[in-house]
Design a protein that fits this description.
With 232 residues, this protein is of the alpha/beta class. 40% of the residues lie in helices and 13% in strands. Helix 2 runs parallel beside helix 3 and helix 7 crosses helix 8. The longest helix has 15 residues. The protein is globular, with a radius of gyration of 18 Å.
């Protein structure tokens, strides 16, 4: 059984009321995600973050109108530990965001599960950039099961590690969950990457969604077909 984790505190930033309300409902459907404030502008986000000191500032913006210098200013002045930007497309302006300190860039048409997983990954210290041309989990991909051949080259433990990574867990958390050393977890992760030809944890999460071994409905469990709900 997965241990209870401290809630991740999030500031939602969007100029549209309905978008902020939607993200609040999505994020707070999970017991480990908590919205501590909403801002309709970057200036307001700086003020609210000073009072709330959230773990993550999550900014939703249209790619064509995103103000990169303003985002740089927000990151410099805010009290949020990390910043995730959700955009409608990846263009040259958006590609500048990692250079000004943004920790994650994700398409806002990604699935609810992927958005929640991205929040967890960034809170755990990872960087997530959704590259142009990479399918997001909301793409039309036929659902697959864990026994359809995608994971046939993995050991049982390597498959468990993939599922837990897709749930947004760190190596230390996986070590506790599986009752093995962190060095053993690192070894399993590297073997899994090599066998599946994955470059990093971000691609492992995308792969897990696309082959259908993570689904909404219940928490992930080891040694059985996994499920990853936003309510994790």
């Amino acid at each position: 059984m997965m241990q209870q984790r401290k809630s991740i505190r999030i500031l939602v930033v969007s100029e549209r009321n309905v978008v902020r309300a939607g993200y609040r409902a999505l994020l707070e459907s999970s017991p480990d995600l908590k919205v501590v404030g909403e801002a309709e502008s970057i200036g307001q986000a700086i003020t609210i973050s000073a009072a709330q000191a959230p773990d993550i500032a999550m900014l939703d913006a249209d790619s064509y109108s995103i103000d990169v210098p303003a985002v740089r200013r927000m990151i410099a002045l805010q009290k949020a530990k990390s910043t995730l930007v959700l955009v409608d497309s990846i263009d040259q302006r958006v590609r500048q965001l990692p250079g000004v300190g943004v920790d994650g860039v994700l398409l806002n048409q990604s699935s609810s599960d992927m958005i929640c997983s991205a929040v967890r990954m960034i809170a755990a210290g990872y960087t997530l950039i959704s590259p142009a041309g990479v399918r997001t989990p909301s793409s039309a991909v036929p659902a697959a099961t864990a026994d359809d051949g995608h994971l046939e080259n993995l050991t049982r433990r390597e498959a468990d590690v993939l599922r837990l990574i897709a749930h947004g867990m760190t190596n230390a958390e996986i070590s506790t969950e599986l009752s093995v050393s962190e060095s053993t977890v690192k070894s399993h992760v590297q073997h899994m990457f090599n066998k599946l030809e994955l470059r990093n944890r971000v691609h492992a999460v995308i792969f897990a969604y696309e082959i259908g071994i993570v689904r909404a409905g219940a928490p992930a469990r080891v040694s059985e077909p996994p499920v990853l709900a936003c309510a994790g």
